[in-house]
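Q: My labmate handed me this sequence with no annotations at all. I'd like to see what the chain might look like in three dimensions before we decide whether it's worth expressing. Could you predict it?
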Amino acid sequence: MRLAVQTASSQIISFDAPGAISVAGSFDGTFPSSINNGGTITGIYIDANTLYHGFLRSPGGEFLTFDAPGASSASGTFDGTFPSSINNGGTITGNHIDSKELIHGFLRSPRGEFTTFDAPGVSSVAASGYGTIPESINDAGAITGHYTDTHNVIHGFVRSPSGKLSSFDAPGAGSVAAFGYGTSPKSINDAGAITGHYVDARNVNHGFVRSPSDKFTTIDAPGAGTNAGSGFWTFPDSINNAGAIAGHYIDARRDESLRTSGKRLRPNAACCKTVG
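A: Here is what I predict for the chain of 276 residues:
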């Protein structure tokens, strides 16, 4: 797969990371995940051995590829290094999968120095595919993301610029020992406000905003599906420094059609509730 970047002048530039697989029909290739204000891009590429690697693309088009220390290098495993976010200082966060199929978070400095970390309480069961998954880093170096505990419940975390890790759960988040329940942060702004989604005890998904002082606001888009267990929801993806949030939702028409056909997915309710 070949990805593109669009400049402010609407010029589209296609690019491939060095070493990215180019087999027709493979749906592999180069996958950018984040761009900062200076135009530096980070993301992943998949090589001919189906291993994932990180890359940096400068505004001038120069590439740097990298792997987190401890990332698996076993061919055919779809393991490796997965950058998710770059801030305006050039610091990157993401995760890597080790040879035991465990997921660890990492921080990569602009100088290429790595710090790996695991959230407190994270599952350490080998071959479980669980672990610590950073999603976003702000300009101060604070990181948010999620981890899966030993009971298969998802929790949010925030890592301070000094390295202190704290976990949190949105009020109403389910604690059922089943995959998918819990709190999943997606983005943090420079003030420390976090957005993401959570799954409640009825298997209904809701958006949330967590303030820097740990107050939560639930977000449900008008028109989003409401049937318990349907799998449709309000899904915030990003928050800017003004506090505006962008994301997506599935409407009630699609929710109803899948409910009546017997498929189980996930939905939503009203909008909005703040918990102090």
